[in-house]
Amino acid sequence: MQYNGWDNVAALYDPNRKYFLSTFHEFYDTVNVSYISPVSENNVPLADIYLNYRIIFVFVGAELARNILCLAYHFQPPLGYPVYQWIFHDRTVDQLWQDVAFSYAGKAYSCSKQQMMQSTDGVILNLFRLKRENASAETDVGLTLRDFYVAYQKQLSDHLEEVNLTRDQYAPTAEDWAPLYYDAVWAMALSLTRAQSDLLRQENLTLSEYRYGNPRATALIRHQLSLLDFEGLTGRISFRNETRDTATTVDMYQIAYNQSNATAASSLIGSYDASGLLVYPAAEFVPSSFKIVQTYIHPAVSVVILVPILLCTGFLSTLHILYICHFNSSPIRASSPRLSQLIFSGCYLVMFLAFILVLVTSKWVVSLFDPLSRNHFIVYGMFCYVTNWSVSAGYTLILSSFVVQLWRLYSIFNRHQKKLRFLSDEFLVCIVFGILGLNCVIKLCWILTDPPLEVFRMVDVVESYDGSQEPVHLIQFGCGSKTAVRFDAIVITIQVILGLSLVVLSILNRRIRKRNYTNSGVNVFVYFSTVTGFFANVFATSVGTTTLLFVVIVWETFFLSSVLILSVFLFLPRVRAALAFHAHEL
Fold first, then answer.
1. Which among 45, 377, 406, 450 would be 20 to 30 A from 482, CA to CA?
2. 578 and 342 in contact (C-beta within 8 Å)?
3. 273: which strand partners?
């Protein structure tokens, strides 16, 4: 690399960032960084640099970087001198190309972004867009991002004596990814070197005559960049296009300056990264300065989880509905009390086993569809699906209980009740499972025709690096389309109406019969828990915070557990009576 201009490299740094230069001094020795100087608001040695160097590394903040470029515009050599390649560390193009006004050496300076571009040939920017210490995706260098991060943490900590820091003072920052940046600079240098024969043959240009503003020459270099494959400081290096992002991305911009109207503009001509982490389009609600990684669970996972959830909650619903019925007049109990009680105990046993099966298998099923889910969904995946689908089961419970209460109210005033005896408990059980099956079919249809509905997703929102921002983890699940939102709005309305009606009907039935049967308190508890749990679920989903989501999870878990425990204790005497009756008959 000591040819084609790379033997004339200078480096400017903020004294607060000096340790990044000393830590990787082997790299600078290799590329022959022969001029290293600190800079500040009052000291920018451009005169010395312009005499001997063409490639300039800059390790400073955004504000000082703009001041340096403005000074470069005012201090630029006479026409005929070579223009200069600037390489900025940890800056974005939006931060760099901004109008600036400041004072230097007792004199006021101001520049437009076009004037700042005029003194540059090309610009390489190092962008730290995403830092995922816990990611398990394998990168192009053969390590996971988490392992890669740990390795370079150790590399920095091993050089603390060079940076005058103790291990207690050392704090990791996004600049720990600087080795990737250096490899990207090497990639640019290699692409220039390998393109020199094409430049000479097709454009009659040497590397010393090449300018980034030449679009055809730039296309040749970009082609060589796309073919690049070499062993760098961080491992095997290969070019990746702009559709992928990583812990660090290096972009190369060409500066097109028009002397006729004194205007300049920059355009991206190449990007380098060293990771295989896919990036989905950002959501509309996220500012443009944020970057999003969205991991979607395939709709098939929801289908797999849906069936056992609805089955186990369906058993629970059926038992409560049968318990609401008056078994003293039940033809099932009158004809075969053993059968009725064994049905109850068997349903509870199957429901309990199905519920445990869902909790155990949901974590495994979710982790199969996404490698990242093993870290992020290990807790959320088990309970969020239970919470989400319990809303549907609660809707089924309320609707079926509503039918039962209406039937009981009708039977009180019906003088010909004996003629309708065949519609009592047996028919109500059919109604319950019919509604449950219909609900299941509707849910399956919505999932298959509108995949965003009820698709659980994990979103990592990471702000553009500013020195302190850490990743923000959001958990979102629920509706993903206008049609689904309208569907949920209808469900909410129906649940409110049915919930209030059920309480009224329960009280009305109790007063008409003038009997205090024990299930009235459980009945009201079920209705209240289901309705409030549904509203809490909707609110937490719309807000999208992890805290609220955990509140909903705890509430729904408490609701299901309480109903299960209460029901078991209420049915226990009946089960004992059935077993005693069965033993007496034997």
1. 377
2. yes
3. 249
Query: Which pLDDT value is given to residue 71?
Result: 87
d(CA 377, CA 476): 12
Q: Assign residue 543 a region (left: φ > 0; alpha: ψ between -120 and 50; beta: otherwise).
A: alpha
State the DSSP code for 419: G
Look up residue 45 and give its two tokens: 């040695």
With a cut of 80, say whether residue 111 has pLDDT above it. yes
Q: Alpha carbon of 540 to those of 46, 186, 476, 510, 550: distances in Å?
A: 56, 48, 9, 36, 9
Residue in this structure with the two tokens 């318990």, named with its chain if needed: 323
147 Cβ neighbours under 8 A, 6+ residues apart? none
Q: Are 498 and 399 in contact (CB under 8 A)?
A: yes
| CA–CA separation, 54 and 43 (whole Å) | 19
Please state whether beta strands 55-59 and 9-13 pair in parallel, antiparallel, or not at all (unpaired). parallel
Q: What is the mean pLDDT of residues 458-468?
A: 35
Give residue-wise pLDDT tens across range 565-578: 555 555 555 545 55
For the chain, the first-to-last Cα distance in angstroms comes to 96
Q: Report pLDDT digits (tens) over 280-312.
A: 222 333 333 333 333 333 344 444 444 545 555
What are the tens digits of pLDDT across the range 34-51?
A: 777 888 888 888 877 777
Gap between the Cα atoms of 290 and 257, Å rounded: 30
CA angle centred on 115, ends 109 and 121, rounded to 5°? 125
Q: pLDDT digit string (tens) for 130-166? A: 344 334 444 434 455 555 555 545 544 544 443 333 4
Return all residues near 472 (Cβ < 8 A) that are at least 6 apart.
460, 461, 462, 463
Domains and CATH numbers, the chain: 9-279 (3.40.50), 298-585 (1.20.1070)
| 354 touches 389 (CB < 8 A) | no
For the chain, give percent helix, strand, coil, nearest 5: 60, 15, 25
Look at residue 86 and give its three-state secondary structure: strand
Rounded to 10°, the helix 373-413/546-585 angle is 50
Model pLDDT for residues 7-24, shown as the tens digit of each residue: 567 888 777 655 455 444
Beta strands in 128-258 (DSSP E): 229-232, 235-238, 249-258
Sign of CA dihedral 269, 275, 276, 279: negative
Q: Do 571 and 343 meet the contact criterion of CB atoms below 8 Å apart?
A: no
